[in-house]
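Our consortium's second objective concerns turning raw sequence data into structural hypotheses that experimental partners can test. To show how far this objective has progressed, the report includes one record in full. It was chosen at random from the queue rather than selected for favorable results. The single chain below, 506 residues long, was entered without modification.
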Amino acid sequence: MTPKKTTAPNYFSAFPVYLIGLLLLLFSCRKENTFSRNAETLRFSADTVYLDTVFTGVGSSTRELRVFNPTNENLIVNSIGLGKGAQSPFRLNVNGASTVLARDVEILAGDSIYLFVEVTANTGGAFELLFTDSIVFNTGGNVQDVKLVTLARDAYFHYPDSILEIAQDPFPPLRIPYSFVNCNAVWQADKPHVVYGYAVIPNGCQLQIEAGAQVHFHNNSGLWVANGGSLKVDPNNMGDYENPVVFQGDRLEPFYRDIPGQWGGVLGGLFFQGQSVDNVINNAIVKNATTGIRLDSNTAAQPNVLLNNVRVWNHSRVGIYGGYGNLQAQNVVVANCGLYGFYALGGSYSFLQSTFANYWSQSNRSTPVIGLVNFFEFDSEVFVRNIEKAYFGNCIVYGRLESEFGVGEFPTGFVNYEFDHGLMRLNPFPEDNSYDINDATRFKTVTFNMSPNFIDTDVNNYELDTLSPAMNTGSTGIGIQVPLDIKGQLRSFGGLPDLGAYERIE
C-alpha cells in the first residue's frame, strides 16, 4: 500500500499576506491628523522682544520667541510676518527658513514652535535711533502681534585695507589685516569708534583720543603703535573716573559686558612696538581683551609709555605684558586675568599706588598676578632679557592663590625688583627659593597675607573696606608723588596714605 503523501502548510509563504492584512488593519484604525483654521488665540513667551543695542549697519545677536497653541486642536496659522514687510530692519526665521511672511504654519495641539529674530539697523547719520516693528500672526482671522524693539547707534568705523603676512614655516603664514590711521588724527568722543583688524599709528604720526571716547574692537582686532608712532589718550587729563576712555569689544549685549577675550589679535589689544614714543594713557579702562596692553622690544633709557588712572581687567591671558618694555604707571588697577595681571619678560617698570588683584573665576589659574622672568627658550637655546627695574611703591598684590608673585631668574642674568611699602599674598617658603621675604632690599615694609578687604571683587570694585589693613600704611614719600588717587580724591598726608590705587575716605 502506497502511503498517503501529506504536505506541511507553508507558513512562510503566507507571511506577506498576513503582514499586509495587519498593516491594513492598523491604518484603518489610525486617526488622520487634521488641522483647524479656526480663529484661535495663540500664546507667546513674551509680548515684546527687545534686541540689544547695535551699531549702525552691524547685525545683532539672535533672539527667540516661542509661540504656543493652547488648544486641544491642531492649528494652521494663516500667516506670520513682519509688520513692515520688506522695509523692516528686522529679520525673521520661521521653521528654519528666513522670511518676511510665512503662510500656513502648523502647530500641533498643546505644542509650540520657535521663531528667531535679528536686526541690522541704519541710523542714517543720527547718533542714536530707536527702531520698532512687530511680528503679526493671523489665525483664522484672529490677528495678534508681538512688538520688536532695538536701539541703534551711529559710529566711526575703521576698516582694514591691507594684509600683513608673517612667515611661520612649516605652518601657513600669519595674516594680520590692518590700516594706517591718518597722521595726527583725533578720535572724538561724540560717537563710538569701531575698529576691524589693527588700526596702525605709523612712524612720525600721532593719534589722539579725546576724554570719554568709547573705542570698540571686533574679534582679533587692536590698536598698533608702530616704531616712531605715538598714542595720546586724554593727553590733557580732561577726563575722570566717571568719564574714562574705554577700550572694549564691539558686542553691546549686556551678556558681553564682562566677558574676557573678545578682542586683541596676535599682537595683543593695545600694542606698543619697540621705539614708539611719548605714549600716554590717562583716565581709561582697558577691558575684555586677550592681552590688554603689550609693550615690546623697547631699548630706550626713558619710559615710552605712561599710564595714569587706568583700569586694566577681565583679559583672558594677560592684563599688561612687558616683552622688554619701558613703563611708568601710577594709580593703575590690574585685575582678573586668565594668566597674569602683569607679566614682564625683561625691561624696566615702575608702579606707584597701584592695585594688582586676581580673583579669576573663569577657570583654574596657576600663575600669579605678577610674574617677572628674565629668559626664554627657543630651539633648545636660552635667551636672557634682564629686568633692569621692577619697582612697586605703595602697591597691593593679592588674589586667590597662595602666592601672587613669582620670579623666573636665569643665573647668567638678573631680575632687579623691589616692593617698597605694600601688602602682598605670598608663600613665605617658596619651593624653588626664588625669593626671600626677609630680604629688606626686595621687600621693604611689606605686610604679608592679610586680606586687603576689597569691597566687591565680583564687580571689580577694589576700593578698601573700613577694616582694611592697607589703610594708613603707605609711605608718605611715595604717596606725595601721586597726591590724588584714581578717583581724584586727595590722599591723606595728615597720617599715612593708603596702599593701592584707592584712598579710603571716611
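The partners drew two points from this record. The radius of gyration is 32 Å. Confidence is low (pLDDT under 50) at residues 1-15. Both points have been shared with the crystallography group to help prioritize constructs.
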